[in-house]
Design goal:
It holds the Pfam family AIM24. The chain is mainly beta. About 15% of the residues lie in helices and about 40% in strands.
């Protein structure tokens, strides 16, 4: 194997974390902000890119790391290396409620495509890049689902699904239509495109956006019920404005309730 062969255990239900066991000189790479805890004798180091292309020279490293900027990620990742004599553990936590999904790339033909913010961590040697779209429809209308990340190699990788995760096995030619933000990832055999919903009432009054993703089998698809963008928009919409407390929230009277209970400041 080119990637380090790591063992792992996933703990928790709604707010999960993954504990990775490293043999001496084994390492794991992770996005900034996902680290939770680690044993002694684990060395933490900031690396340029994902650490999978150490023999490609300076230009190769620059090109590989630079592509990550297109997904909104940092040029740098963090590597955790076991420099001790025995087995050591390092843990990474979910960014928000959901499920951590282990992906064995050796079982996915060496490549898995996922949302740009789904990647959590991976064994050292797994390449984390971007999957460019070859279709104009995806580019103009894909939204969240346009620029996807690709995980390549033969090791273990871990992605995060918000809310409840659904795993769908698509038969050859079987089509699944999904909100673009609800896609976690899919195997490289799945054909992916953007489709117009159609219909004037759907377009004007539907409230679900103008486009959705079509995923055509064969292959495995992972779907999340709570994309982070949807969670953030709900929190923002529910937040009180002007720094005051909103006592009328959730009531029939709404803002009128503030006048009736004496909170009539303007």
């Amino acid at each position: 194997m080119n990637a380090h062969e790591i063992d792992y255990h996933i703990y928790g239900e709604e707010m999960q974390y993954v504990e990775i066991e490293l043999d001496p000189q084994e390492a794991v790479v992770a996005e900034a902000g996902s680290f939770m805890m680690m044993d002694s004798d684990i060395k933490m180091d900031t690396i340029f890119g994902d650490g999978s292309n150490q023999d490609t020279g300076v230009l190769g490293k620059l090109f590989s790391a630079g592509k990550r900027l297109l997904t909104g990620e940092s040029l740098f990742m963090t590597a955790f290396l076991n420099i001790g004599q025995g087995k050591k553990q390092v843990s990474f936590a979910s960014p928000y409620p959901g499920k951590i999904v282990p992906i064995d790339l050796s079982e996915k033909g060496g490549k898995f495509i996922c949302q740009k913010d789904a990647f959590l961590c991976a064994a050292k040697g797994v390449s984390v890049g971007i999957e460019f779209s070859k279709r104009l429809g995806r580019g103009f209308f894909g939204g969240e689902g346009f620029i996807m990340q690709k995980l390549e190699g033969d090791g273990m990788a871990f992605v995060h699904a918000g809310g409840t995760m659904a795993k769908k096995e698509l038969a050859p030619g079987e089509v699944l239509r999904v909100d673009t933000g609800c896609i976690v990832g899919f195997s490289q055999t799945v054909d992916y495109n953007i489709e117009f919903i159609g219909g004037i009432r759907n377009t004007v009054f539907g409230g679900e956006g103008l486009f959705f993703a079509t995923l055509r089998g064969p292959g495995t698809v992972y779907i999340q019920s709570l994309p982070f963008s949807r969670l953030a928009s709900r929190v923002w919409a529910a937040a009180p404005r002007g720094g005051g407390k909103d006592k009328g929230e959730g009531s029939i009277l709404g803002g009128l309730g503030d006048l009736l209970d004496g909170d009539n400041r303007f």
